[in-house]
């Protein structure tokens, strides 16, 4: 940490700051420039936030040098983390596609979709049983009934199930049915939910908040790891910007950025990331080319009748065309698509 | 709602859309231009989101005409809503200042602050007992112990208490101690928490999410009102933009915008809105001049030792100077500052 | 400047960086932590950008400590700068209101507006003769004819004239007619135009670019001062954010921020800052309460027939009501409104 | 265009609006709902901006239905436009890579770079002779001398030359030396420069402004086409968002979005788009996978000594590795890399 003193700060003021830092266990390095005094402080990075030196009127600014995260960092764990889910692995050479409707609407809808996406090459089934909706007048999900349909679809197809949890009180219930718990974008900094998810025993897919910086996102993952759950995957789903043609701005640079800073896998959601079905296919290809470890894509048998997100959902036919394209692309990237290994159906 | 068909859409495609709308109870108006067919649809605005017509490839776009909110709207309730809390009223002619530390750190700290801000003219005491913190390594709050200290400070000073709730399971507990429940910015779209807060029987201060649009914010308030709690106040605390000199960009235009669209009071938080103590005083004045119904301001007896937000906290001395200035300003605005009416201590 | 080396960087790599810095005239301070080597470098801040040390793979990051601007800085010039224009002063105790239409549309329109705004208390007349328009199909301005009408309005009313220049080739022409040259938001980083404006001999009002940071804005002003023109005023007119209810997000915190960092006056444009006429009056009040040295406001005798910006223009009647309100407010702020001193008409 | 009247607007007010529209040549369709009167108006889309109906207090909002651009639109020109430059074509099946330093620094530097990038497979040489720099104290370019070096490099290598023009007065000069004129991001809405570039007789690469919406960007291209120059290419180089790990947020969704809305080619700049050299390679791959028609990449023989943008520049060695990877990728995408066809050297 670097502390920059204001021009004209007195010896006493400099002394006060350095005493404060020494008390907190930091080692100090003083550097007196012509215009400014600058102090370097070396110590435990996790105690940094507790020190609010900018509250002192004679401190101009405090510049943190080390990142505030630890467990999610590649420095802490240099090799790629591989998340094992059932008989699948995420974070290795195989790229996985998670597909399904935004919301579980009915038994028929989820089973039809599951068979279709498995046929096309998906390895995970997505679908929300608990839905965080902007409007109180919108469909809020089938809840446990929806979870049962997802489990039934897994039985029939061998697909693994990923589904969202939005209430800390439901974590155990969702973990009973799901193979992966999804923390949605709007809950990325719902620390209560993160702490609960840390205890669930299941891998967690952590979506980026619509206005979360890379560092805040990594700190949210740090909550889950600090709580004892090391099975975390990042999921970029677009950030909020001034551009309104797309629903969000899909920030694919997060793929190589996260791979540089962290050991955890990165999944891309081109459906929420664009909000328009006709942009999903090209952006899915771009995501893989950027190095993503997987995709999560909305597929609905009848998008125009979907209770939510119809306009960004692929039909099973379009999904199949996209999967064929992705298979070809992954091999040019020296990776391969995951496969449902169990003989089911 | 206006549905714009793509160029060259066929009679069958137009028919399909209009049938779909008619089935959902909408009345249709067809307008055939030279380049495009446009359809006006009139019906229940709350059913709009259920219809995902943009999922149809021959629909170019759907333009909603009516706002999706109802209960929060000034059309629904033309007069200003006055929120009654203890013997105070928010939303009328009196402007209230809520002040106190970011976090309740100790009994001594909260009592010292409470007396100081009451002396200077505040009518509410703020202070967090449950803290949503970006880092798992930061202080997470004194929890119920903190709530007890706040209640004790109320006893001693006559100040009303506002404090944040971050877990749906704690709503009843917090409501037992607090006069106003605060929903923090990062929980603005934590719909589980909103639904629980709707049932608590206490007024709710709803902070704007860092990347929430005005409409999404109003929809979050709609959740609370739809759940039966009409005692809602909006609180602008800055939005996330590219500018990093300030912690957030305080969007004061929301004051007149909300007063135009809604009947609910608007409070401004210049502390989080700027992140720098030396900007708090001028922005507090600006907030009142823009028409705000109140302020929520961080005050700490020793900002440089605060466990959080020290750099945006005023000392009691600076707070007093600001309050004197605000008193003079409010009278030029034909309003007056609230006062603690009860004779305590 | 602080240079942070990557973990595990070798003595040679550290040596290379420090040699590089020494060659450029920087004095070096080495600090070897357990995890990282950190280097403090003290030298000429304006040479900083020439050094691209982050291009070296073993440099983790470079953190600038001093701001890159000099002439615009309050450290360089501690007292407030007062800009003298005709017999008026901006930056002192008097607050000036600049008013008029977006574009000069006709002689009659500009004369009618000029008399109306002078009557209401404005001291400057605004109006564009050269218009930067988003669409090539929109009205592009009356050019020199418009400048002549502005000059005629000045003759008749005693108002000073501020008008925009958009082409470096027109700077001399515009400076012949105008009292203040306006550099528009989209030209804030048109460095060619800035350099030309530096030579025009007239004060310059520099609008903030829609996505310019505070530092970039100050650097743009530095261009004009570095070119020899010290008569610069900042003008905040809203930044581009995700919020679309308002045309831009008016960032009033720039008023106290600029007053802290710079000695130059700050003007606020609540018309472009909000894009809606009914938000102009409250935001104009907020601007003054935040400490602005002046306002620039769009007024049009018939907003619904304006060739541009009608929806954010006040009628003369509404402008008069606002001015009465501002007069009362300024006195509560211990300032006063400017006045046209010459006996004209 | 749809005009939504406020609740309770009178017959006279509705009449006034419809008369106004009829006078401007619009055909009107009236739709009286229970809550609102809505008016559909069909007419010339380019006259829309001239009508400022929202200035009328009884108009709630005006919703444009048709896009304001024409010549850049795919509706106007359904087939892909192919831009012919020398013996190369952009916009067809071949993907072109433009490479070179940020700034032309010396004859030796540009010749060394030119040979290196040609060797690796680039077909265009980039390099700025006129530099728009944030600071007046930074290197501002070699100007005409730089243009001569670029032309000499073209002679030696057969690479075509693309270089930026920043002053309308220099357009003819730059067009004399360059094969493609680049309009930089900060000049995207410098309409004076756009109009001049429209007359230069050379293809133009139009970079997206850091806060320009898709529509504003297309309107800027419309200026060039409306001025008679149909040889326009879009170049996405990242937008300004809250994320600061990357210099900008590279918005790759613009590739399929522009391909859907326009017939013009789309080039991606992963160097400015990320600001970090180690992100350039993965994002270049992602750009091609998204369907980009070309790339523009910064390459410098000694990035750590570059006068600008060193930290986002590839060394010739890293560029070569990337090009080999891109060659393999393009063939999986059924495209191929462009080649320098002339036998030179």
Written account of the structure:
The structure is a homotetramer of 345-residue chains. The first copy, chain A, has 345 residues and is of the alpha/beta class. Chain A folds into two domains: 2-63, Phospho-2-dehydro-3-deoxyheptonate aldolase, domain 1 (Alpha-Beta Plaits, 2-Layer Sandwich), CATH 3.30.70.1140; 83-337, Aldolase class I (TIM Barrel), CATH 3.20.20.70. Chain A has helices at residues 11-23, 107-120, 144-157, 171-177, 191-197, 214-226, 254-261, 270-274, 277-289, 316-332, and strands at 2-5, 27-32, 37-42, 59-63, 83-85, 88-90, 94-100, 124-126, 160-164, 180-183, 204-207, 232-236, 266-268, 294-298, 336-337. In chain A, the strands form three sheets. Chain A has an eight-stranded parallel beta barrel with strand order 7-8-9-10-11-12-13-14, surrounded by seven helices. A four-stranded antiparallel sheet of chain A has the order 2-3-1-4, with helices on one face. In chain A, a hairpin with a 4-residue loop joins β2 and β3. In chain A, α2 (107-120) packs parallel to α3, α2 (107-120) packs parallel to α10 (316-332) and α9 (277-289) runs parallel beside α10. The longest helix of chain A has 17 residues, at 316-332. Chain A is elongated and about 75 Å long. Chain A starts with a strand and ends in an 8-residue tail after the last strand. The interface between A and B is large, with 52 and 52 residues.
């Amino acid at each position: 940490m670097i502390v920059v003193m204001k021009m004209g700060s007195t010896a006493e003021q400099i002394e006060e700051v350095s005493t404060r830092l020494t008390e907190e266990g930091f080692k100090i390095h003083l550097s007196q420039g012509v215009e400014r005094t600058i102090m370097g402080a070396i110590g435990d990075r996790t105690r940094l936030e507790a020190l609010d030196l900018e509250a002192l009127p004679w401190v101009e600014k405090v510049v943190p040098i080390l990142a505030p995260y630890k467990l999610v960092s590649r420095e802490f764990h240099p090799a790629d983390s591989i998340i094992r889910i059932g008989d699948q692995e995420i974070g290795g050479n195989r790229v996985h596609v998670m597909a399904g409707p935004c919301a579980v609407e009915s038994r028929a809808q989820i089973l039809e979709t599951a068979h279709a996406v498995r046929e096309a090459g998906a390895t995970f089934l997505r679908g929300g049983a608990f839905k965080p909706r902007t409007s109180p007048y919108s469909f809020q999900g089938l809840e446990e009934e929806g979870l049962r349909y997802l489990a039934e679809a897994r039985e029939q197809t061998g697909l693994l199930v990923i589904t969202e949890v939005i209430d800390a009180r439901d974590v155990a219930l969702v973990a009973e049915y799901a193979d992966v718990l999804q923390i949605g974008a709007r809950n990325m900094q719902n620390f209560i939910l993160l702490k609960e998810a840390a205890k669930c025993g299941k891998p967690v897919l952590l979506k980026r908040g619509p206005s979360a910086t890379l560092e805040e996102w990594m700190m949210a993952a740090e909550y889950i790891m600090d709580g004892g759950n090391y099975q975390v995957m990042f999921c970029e789903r677009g950030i909020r910007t001034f551009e309104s043609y797309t629903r969000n701005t899909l920030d694919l640079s997060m793929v190589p950025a996260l791979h540089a800073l962290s050991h955890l896998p990165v999944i891309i959601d081109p459906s929420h990331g664009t909000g328009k079905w006709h942009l999903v296919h090209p952006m899915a290809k771009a995501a893989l080319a950027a190095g993503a470890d997987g995709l999560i894509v909305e597929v609905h048998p009848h998008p125009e009748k979907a209770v939510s997100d119809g306009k960004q959902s692929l039909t099973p036919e379009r999904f199949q065309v996209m999967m064929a394209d992705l298979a070809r692309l992954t091999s040019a990237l020296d990776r391969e698509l995951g496969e449902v290994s169990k003989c089911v159906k």
